[in-house]
Each structure stands twice: as structure tokens, then as C-alpha cells.
Amino acid sequence: MARFLGGRVLQGLFVLWAAYTLSFAVLYALPSDPAAIAAGANNSVTPEQLALLRHEMGLDRPLMEQYLTKLGGALHGDLGRSLQSGEPVTSLIGRALPPTLAVAGAGLVLGVLLGTGLAVLATVTGSRRLRRALLSLPPLGVAIPAFVIGLLLLQWLSFTWNVFPAIGEGGLRGLVLPAVTIAVQPAALIGQVLAKSMGDELGKDYVAVARAKGAGPLRVNVRHVLRNAALPALTLAGLLVGGLLTGAIVVEAVFSRNGLGQVTQGAVAAEDLPVVQGVVVLGALVFVTVNLAVDLLYQVLDPRLAVARRPAGRFALSGLAGRG
Amino acid sequence: MSPRLLEVEDLTVHYRARRGAVRAVEAASFAVGEGETVAIVGESGSGKSTTAYALLGLLPRSARVERGRIGFDGRDLAGLPERRWREVRGREIALIPQDPGTSLNPVQRIGAQVAEALRLSGGADRRTARARTLELLADAGLPDPAVQARQYPSQLSGGMRQRALITIAIAARPRLIVADEPTSALDVTVQRRILDLLGALVRESGTGLLLITHDLGVAAERADRVLVMRSGAIVEQGTPGEVLSDPRDPYTRSLIDAAPGLARTPRRHRVRLTAIPGDPFAEPRPARAPEAGAGPDVPVLRVEELVKEFRPPRAAGRATAIRAVDGVSFTIPRGRTYGLVGESGSGKSTTARLILRLADPTGGRVLLGEEDITGTRGAAQRLLRRRMQIVQQNPYASLDPRRTVEQIVTDPLASFGLGSRAQRRGRARELVDLVALPASVLARRPAELSGGQRQRVAIARALVLNPELVVCDEPVSALDVAVQAQILDLLAALQAELGVSYLFISHDLAVVRHIADEVGVLHRGRLVESGPTEEIFAGARHGHTRELLDAIPGRR
């Protein structure tokens, strides 16, 4: 287990390094002058002052040297300073992260709960009509863009009925609408995949055995089927995290919330390269962490995966012996 | 006569299908007494499993009990609402399913699954469930109940899983056990031990047992009474002696002939050499043509001191490698069949993979004709595929479901670029005809074919290149006995016609007897006995061979 974990952590570090290096290569290949941006829109800067600034920022040195210096800094947790405000990128992102994490996290939890609920209900129900109605929801949820859902929610629940605040933080109450908006797509995808794999599991032999023991439908579905069907949905949930960060940008724009989305949007518009790079590296970090967690969860959910790593189990599972 | 526990009268079950109702069971009437074992015998599609699941109220949604009465202990179970069925299932009527590999929940410990059966039937409460579970697992003959209770199904062998399922079935002391092909997914030696266990449990507790099987040998050996089912109707009923010695229905006769352990004389065949191996479109030449490799005196395959070791992963901390194949040597003469027999895990499939060059041996040599093929790689190894082909165990998994039969059969020709499109089409038609399938199957896909038909397609695909050697890896063990016999006959007829040689791998000596000229018995990677088939059957010297022989149902 320690071996497995060590391997995965190394893999994660590689992904982080690759994300940093790629973003460096792409961003610095852009035809923009960081020094000019740092000097601001102020046209009174003379070429001499600009050259001096460039020298101070190390932009006149060879590209490789710039890269190694910056990478060394990144290893010590220094991602450079924002070109616009001069604030360290880490503290800028650190400040913008909590509200975004709150929205994205709430969205993910809500999405997983809604998706699972939909799949379980559609599988357990004896009514064919209810099942069909439930299973027609996911395609709808995927088809409607998040910002449309956000705007509709705003229109009804904030402006018409005034149930939830339209703008700003407003604590937990302010979190509801953005979280719902962000949760719709993950819920739809998870619901669809989970309902499909639960349906597949229901036809398996062990379900017949469970029913032959005298188990009722709820017990069969929740105790036996759900856990076996969870793996594909879990993989999907891990992949959806990347989409949640993108979703957060849209939602923060629609609900005029402070957060990472706003910071990213501003940085991209102003070509504030260190900030953009910081956001890319943060995205990679989140992705790596979540997928490591998903891998660990696999082992908890499916003992066969943990067993396969032990020698005796591996031999038995090698498939050489066939079905006999 | 023991008191009647179960009395089925006029049971009729229909399946709703797109083109109207399909009759699965038609007016079946039978009874099972307390402590009595009754076997229902029939091939797949005969309605025997539908009957079994009707007795448990576990029919699929598309099925309906149209008519009839399921009398159990004075009540009629037919038409019972689902809620009431739950009180009957487990407590009064229990199920032992067919495939222990898929019938246990893979993500739950064995102990928890047994305890669930106890709790649901009220046989134990939260406190007593654990102790009672261990007791029951011990009763079912699991060697170390405390360990197995904490293991997951994937950590147990097939036989141990079936013991766990038997434990689940007997947990609530049911009065009737319905066992649906309880041993057809198991090796013959394991089959015997499981059937012994079931017999003992039933005798001790006075439970009625309804044994569903496709093997008349098993039924005759184990049951007090035998019912033969065909196309949903019961065509014969009686004691095993009556049914075997004086079958009234011609179908029963054919089942007796098909059961490998019951038939008296093995099938015989002759040898003739034809065509150029590896290229069906080459001009037929005499067998001593240089491409043919060698004359009929040189054996098609020689295996010398073959060894395969599997090294456990480094993390395991164990230095010793596992010897899956340990110094195996044998020879297959041209146009003959060599049967390789052993339990699962004995190394027979690994041996096959080494011969086919799908795995590299740790030591030893493999000679195809006069050529040493042990170290071949790349293009030379690919060319070997024109001379050696394989027929696999499971025809449901070995055929690509998205391709038509014609595409499947001509695939080897296409991958070696042999023949024009028209030639390939002609060859496919020829092969399909050779394996006794109608030409109309060429346009169909595997899903539209039965198991036996699929295996015929797999055989056609293996023969399309005109190979010298076909490795048949358990080619009939996924099939019903009646279909098994047909496939074995087909393989023998093809050998007589084409002169192809077979390496025939099986866990079942009875099956091998019908097809092999020589037999080798593998046990833990070693060839413990080898010789002409009839000699092995007449006087096996090694204890393991005798055990395999005793396991054949119907021989005692």
C-alpha cells in the first residue's frame, strides 16, 4: 500500500511539473511584454525606464535561465508577483480560493447527492412511468448551459419571489443558488452513468441470490447493487472536478461573486501571466489530489482491487485458469 | 412414500416477447417429498431453470405464471404478492445458484453475506449471527471458517465459493432447496465433493432437494427420482434405474447417449492428409511437398521439458517463483489428438499458451514439425499463427459481437492478406458448411446464435487457414452435454476429413476419452501420467488420475 501510494504521489508531482512547464512555454511564447503590462497603461514610460524594468524583472536573460529561476522559486512556494498589483500570486490566489472552493465543493456534493438519488430512485421504483421520467432528466441537464440555469434561477428565486439573494456573498443563503447552478451538470452525468450501471448490476446472479435470501428491493439496491455500481460513477466524479473550476468562473460572473473565477478572468484579460500560470498550476494540483483520493476510494469500495495487489490474489486472477 | 412437501400441478409459464407469448413451461406436474431428492434434467431452453425460478417467485418481469398451482406445505404459492414471497424465500425455499463465480456479491465479505441470510430469515440476531455463521461455514466443509468469513469471494476457489453459497442456502434451515445446476461451472473432482456435501446435508436435515441439471449422469447418480424436461414439458419421470434402463421417450435416449460418463463405447475416427497448411488457396499438393514441413512420420508437435515459472511481484517479499508448468514433455503425431487433462490451476492452459507462443517458457523446447519455435519473435512468430490455431472455452466471449459470422471466419485470411475478396467469401461458405451450419448464418452476428452454433463458428475460424495443429482449450465445458456431444463429433469428423491434429485440453476425463488418442494427466504443473487413452481408462497408475476417473458421474 505504501508502495502504491508513493508511486501515485510521484506521478502527481510529475503532472504538476508538466503543468508548470507547459504553461510557462505557452504563456511566454505569447507576443506580449510583461514589463509593459507591469508599467501599466501609463504612456509616459520612456523606453529607457522600460528597459530598466525589464532588467529588474530578469526578462533580458536567456529563456532557459528565466525558466530555471522561476521553477526554483515555484519549488519554494513562490509563483512570482502579479504584474498588475505587484501582490504575490500565492497570496492573491489564496485570498480568492475560499469562496470558489465553497461554491465548487457545495456544487460537487450536491451534484453527487442529486445524481445518486436520481439513479437509486429510478432503479428502486416499481413504476415504469416514474423511471422513464427520471431517466429523461440527465440529457436535459447536460444540454442546458450552466449560465442559462443560473440566470433562470436568479429570475425566479431572487427577482420574482425574493427567496435567495441575487448578488454577493450573503453567507450560506448566498451559496445556494450558485451551488445549485454548478451542481446540475455533475448531477446529470453521475445520475445517467450510475443508473445505467445499476441497471446492469441488477441482472447479475448475486442479486438473484440476495432476493432468494428474502431481501426486499430497497435492501437489494442499496446494500448490494449501489456499491458494485459505484465505480464508473466515481471515476466520472473525479474527472468532473476539472469542469467544476471552469463552471465556477461562469457562476461567479453570473452571480457577481468574488473568487478565483473573477481573478482568472481579470488576469487573462490583462495578460497577467504569473497569475494565469498560478491558476493553471492550482488546477493541476486540485485534479491530482482528487484523482489520488478517487484511486484510494476504489480500494475501499472494491476489495478485488486491493486483493489483486497481493501475490496470491494476483495469481488467482491472472485469468490463465479460465472459468473452470 | 414420504409426505409431499411440494406439489406442482399443471404449471404453465409464458414469456412476453415482441412476437407474442413464448411458452417456457407447459403444464408441468411433479412433486417433491420431505427429504427427497428430485432431479429435473434437460438442455438449455427446456424450461428447467424457469421452473426452478417460478418456485422461488424470482421469474423475470417478462415472465408470467399463466396457469397451475405451486402447492407448498398446504398453501398455493402461485400468484403470491411480492411482499408475501419474501417470507417464503430463504426461510422455506432456498436457492443454490448455477455459477459460484458470479453469485456472491464481490464487494462483501463471505461472513457478512451468510449473516445477512441468517438475519433476514430470523435465524439469528445481531449478537448470535457471527457465531452461527462460523458454525454453518464449518458444516459446509470450509477448511478455516474464521478466515473465510473475513475473505472476499475473489479470494476463494470456485468450489469454496459454492460451499459459501450452500451455507447461505441452508442458513435458515429451509424445507426445500432448489439447486440450479449447482456444479456445472466446476471441475469434475470439485463437482463430486460438492454433490457429496449436498447429499449429506439433505439426508441429515430431511430437507427436500430439487436438483436442476443438464447432465443425466449427475441426475441418475444423485436423485431419488428423475424428471426429463423438453421444450417446457415433462416427457419422462421415474427412478434413475427406470429412466436409464427403459427410457420411454426418444429424447431421454439421446440424453443418455450424450452424457459422456454413460455412453459405453468411445467414438473412433481415421486419418487422411490434404492441402497445404497455412494457406487454403494454394494448389493442393502431395503431403511431402516442402511447405508441408515434413512427411507424416514427423510428429506435428513435440514438447520437451517445458517449464514456466511465475515470479511473484517484488513487493511480496517472497523469493521463490511459482512453477505453473514443471518439466512437461509429450508428442502429438500428425492427424492425431492428444488430450491434456487436469483440474483448474494444474497448468494446462499455461502449457497451451507456451505452445501457441502467447507466453515465453522459462525452460524447455517446443518443436512444430522439425522447427524449433521456442524463441521465435516478430514476423516469424506471426507466421506460426498460420500453422497453429486455437478454439477457446467460452464461445460467448471469443467472438467479436459487432462482426458478422462471415467477417469473423475470414478474419485470419484478411490479416494475412490471403485470397481475393471473392475467394475469402467462398472459403467462408465452405467452412460454415464444413462445421454443419446453414449458409444463412454468414450474415448474422454472434448474439443471434446459440452456444453450440457459436462454438462451431469458432471452429470454422480456427480451421480457415488450414492449420496443422488446433489447440482446443476446454472447447465444450461451457456447453450443455447434448451440445457437447455434437461438438466432439464434429471435431472428430473434421479431423478425419482434414487430417488436422488437436491438442485437446479439458478438466473432464470423460470428455477427453471420446476424442483423444493419447492422454496426459497434469497435476500441479507435472505430467503425472501419460499414455494411450484406453490404457489410462483400463488401469490408471497415479492416484490423481484415479481421482479424476472416480469423479466422472455415472461411473460408480
From TrEMBL, chain A:
One of its GO terms (biological process) is transmembrane transport. The keyword Transmembrane applies. Residues 97-298 form the ABC transmembrane type-1 domain. GO terms for cellular component: plasma membrane. The chain crosses the membrane at residues 12-30, 101-122, 134-156, 176-195, 229-255, 275-301. Pfam families: BPD_transp_1, BPD_transp_1_N. InterPro entries: BPD_transp_1_N, MetI-like, MetI-like_sf. Its main location: membrane. PROSITE patterns: ABC_TM1. It is found in: Cell membrane. It is a multi-pass membrane protein. Keywords: Cell membrane, Membrane, Transmembrane, Transmembrane helix, Transport. Belongs to the binding-protein-dependent transport system permease family. This is ABC transporter permease subunit. It comes from Actinomadura physcomitrii.
From TrEMBL, chain B:
GO terms for biological process: peptide transport; transmembrane transport. Keywords: ATP-binding, Nucleotide-binding, Transport. The keyword Nucleotide-binding applies. SUPFAM superfamilies: P-loop containing nucleoside triphosphate hydrolases. InterPro entries: AAA+_ATPase, ABC_transp_ATP-bind, ABC_transporter-like_ATP-bd, ABC_transporter-like_CS, Oligopep_ABC_C, P-loop_NTPase. It comes from the Bacteria. SMART domains: AAA. GO terms for molecular function: ATP binding; ATP hydrolysis activity. Residues 277-296 are annotated as: Disordered. Residues 6-256, 301-549 form the ABC transporter domain. Belongs to the ABC transporter superfamily. PANTHER family: D,D-DIPEPTIDE TRANSPORT ATP-BINDING PROTEIN DDPF-RELATED, TRANSPORT ATP-BINDING PROTEIN. This is Dipeptide ABC transporter ATP-binding protein. It comes from Actinomadura physcomitrii.
